[in-house]
Amino acid sequence: MSKRKVLIGVIGLGSLATWGCATTSGSKGVAQSRSKDERVALRTRAQALWDAKVAEDWRAVFDLQDPHSRAAWNEDDFVAWSQKNDPFKIQSFQFGDVQADGNMGWIEVKYNTLIRRFESLPPRDASLWQKWRRVDGTWYPVPLRELVSYPEPPSRRDAVEEGRLRARFMEAWRVRKAGDYHALYQFCDPYDHPKMPEQAYVDMQELLKYLSCDVKWVEVVGKLGRVQVVYRRKVTDPSMTKLPVETIVQTEDWIKVDGEWYQDLSRASGPTPGETHDAS
After folding, report:
1. How far apart are CA 212 and CA 215, in angstroms?
2. What is the pTM assigned to this prediction?
3. Which of 28, 84, 132, 271 is deepest in the core (most CB within 10 A)?
4. With contact defined as beta carbons under 8 Å apart, do 196 and 247 qualify?
């Protein structure tokens, strides 16, 4: 297979060649931004959204969606679809904890709902941690397809291990910056080595040069970790030098094996869904 074909695959997947870099922001475990005003503003917006859901005021629900979603939808079509197809009829709700970390927020919601297609069945109780993001100072619920791109609330994560994963991530960056891709391979989960031979990994790493990046957040839940980073990269193939520098949001998967953190190639997420801007 030619290097150019391999390169196209690497750019598409965007998962094997991304490593840490100088960090300037992001979660450090327990949320740093705890101001009462932030949490009150988030709760107020969430109250308006869930009140509208109970009332089935779909125009109000539409107005509370983020600007990117509203720009992609037609309001009348949204209302018509929701009236006929929204799967749940929310009967009541109550809020629990509210947490905020920079431009990311979470609110614990307990609610009682009917399933629209089976309204003869009794209502059921359910709960969730609803993820929110702040855009230009206003809180909006994270769209469904982007939920995976946001971490769990700080209270459900391991702040100590997040510090360790961040340090491990930075160690990998220093190795990558030195261009020692054989050493970088040792940061991959040993259980992934049979599926990704060392030389194949090194060859793929050499196809892209990373210019800069910014770690946005680190998440650890149990033995699984994630690191979201925004980075700029360019192609190294001399025949493709006219390609522009690419900026992309990447969420990397990590796993703790025998007390150490490794990049988990088997769970590699690739480019973050729906993200052309940073998520924190």
Report:
1. 10
2. 0.79
3. 132
4. no
Name the residue among 244, 92, 220, 68 with its Cα closest to residue 140: 68
Give helix 3-13 / helix 198-205 axis angle, nearest 10°. 80
* pLDDT at 208 (0 to 100): 85
Check if the beta carbon of residue 227 is closer than 8 Å to that of residue 15: no
Confidence of residue 211 (pLDDT cuts 50, 70, 90): confident
CATH of domain 3-29+157-267: 3.10.450.50
Closest CA to 270 of 27, 4, 9: 9
Question: For the structural domain made of 36-151, what CATH number should be given?
Answer: 3.10.450.50
- CA–CA distance, 149 with 166 (Å, rounded to integer): 18
Tens-digit pLDDT profile for residues 97-113: 999 999 999 999 999 99
- Of the candidates 251, 252, 246, the one whose C-alpha atom is nearest the C-alpha of residue 278 is 251
Query: What whole-number percentage of the chain has pLDDT above 90?
Result: 65
Every domain of the chain with CATH number 3.10.450.50 lies at: 3-29+157-267, 36-151
Residue pLDDT, tens place only, 152-182: 999 999 999 999 999 999 999 888 877 889 9
Q: Are 215 and 278 in contact (CB under 8 A)?
A: no
CA distance 139 to 264: 33
Encoding tokens for residue 97?
């904890």
Name the pLDDT band for 271 (thresholds 50, 70, 90): low
The CA–CA distances, whole Å, from 33 to 55, 70, 101, 193 equal 33, 28, 5, 40
- What lies within 8 Å, CB to CB, of 190 at 6+ separation is 257, 262
For tokens 């089976």, name the residue. 118
b/e burial code for range 196-234 (CB count within 10 A of at least 16 → b): beeeebeebbebbebeebbbbbbbbeeeebbbbbbbebe
